[in-house]
Amino acid sequence: MISITDLTKVYQMGDVQVNALDGLSLEIQKGEFLGIMGASGSGKTTLLHMLGLLDLPTSGKIVIDDTDVLALTDYEKTMFRLYKLGYVFQDYALVPDLTVMENVSLPAMLRSDRTEEQTRNDSYGILQKIGLSDRRDHIPRELSGGQQQRVSIARAMVNKPDILFADEPCANLDSENSRVVLDLFREINEKMQQTIVMVSHEDWHKDYFDRIIHLKDGKVVHP
Ligand SMILES: Nc1ncnc2c1ncn2[C@@H]1O[C@H](COP(=O)(O)OP(=O)(O)OP(=O)(O)O)[C@@H](O)[C@H]1O
Ligand SMILES: [Mg+2]
Fold first, then answer.
1. Where does ligand 1 bind, in terms of residues with CB under 6 Å?
2. How far is the CA of 216 from the centre of ligand 2 (A)?
3. More exposed terminus of the chain, fewer Cβ within 10 Å: N or C?
């Protein structure tokens, strides 16, 4: 479970203060597929960055599976991310010069408890699952946007994280590829009981989520 209490994030831009998160509290259940919606600038990406331990809030508390994650050292945070969290970015964020297989293997290679063979098997297995094993030796720009996003999901999944964060993963995809990606998330969520927290601004994505929260001005609102 994820428990967020009174989270704030203030960005200082010269003389101007932006309250990107303004006392946000929220609980996310284990195994939930949660959709986060809200207007541009409402704080969705900022919230996901805090939960993914990619940036520090100004104040507040985040507890993930009984760990007070903001109290961890930088090294412990890195390990926590590596063992428990996966992150999918809007723009895929694949390494351009590495093959599909190498991109997917990266997070597994960083883990000291995985042998090279395990890493290879896990990476190949997840590529098969998403239907891209025949593209394993291609580099990202030889793939379509939808295929690249599926590779980035495979990379986020290769360490079998308990929680998957995705920030507008379909923003650069047409509706057909969006459905492929959303179906994949749904399957991951149902078959592996993975918690998924996904940011979206497309109304029709609502059908895929177990629950939706709306952000406005850095807070959860109840419309
Ligand atoms: N690095 C930053 N420095 C300064 N201000 C920032 C920074 N990142 C975000 N902000 C500001 O914080 C607020 C929330 O931004 P955020 O990116 O979280 O919104 P969002 O809901 O993800 O929007 P979008 O739907 O456009 O992606 C905005 O006013 C934004 O300008
Ligand atoms: Mg955003």
1. 11, 13, 18, 20, 38, 40-46, 201
2. 13
3. C
Cα 218 to ligand 1 centre (Å) = 10
Q: How far apart, in whole angstroms, are the C-alpha atoms of residue 40 and residue 217?
A: 10
Task: Name the CA radius of gyration of the chain, rounded.
Answer: 17
Give me the mean pLDDT over the 160-188 stretch: 91
Domain that holds residue 126: 2-221
Q: Among 44, 50, 167, say which to mutate for ligand 1: greatest number of ligand atoms within 8 Å of CB.
A: 44
Residue 118 pLDDT: 94
- Would you place residue 8 in the very low, low, confident or very high pLDDT band (cuts 50, 70, 90)? very high
- The number of domains in the chain is 1
Provide the token pair at 60: 């507040």
**Which of 10, 11, 13, 49 is the pocket-test mutation for ligand 1 (most atoms within 8 Å of CB)?**
11
Q: What CATH number should be reported for the domain holding residue 135?
A: 3.40.50.300
Ligand nearest to the CA of 201: 1
Which tokens in the block code for residue 106? 């990266």
Give the pLDDT score at 20.
Answer: 98
At CB < 8 A and 24+ separation, what contacts does 123-129 make?
123/154, 123/158, 126/154, 126/157, 126/158, 127/100, 127/101, 127/151, 127/154, 129/154
The arithmetic mean of pLDDT across residues 168-180, rounded, is 89
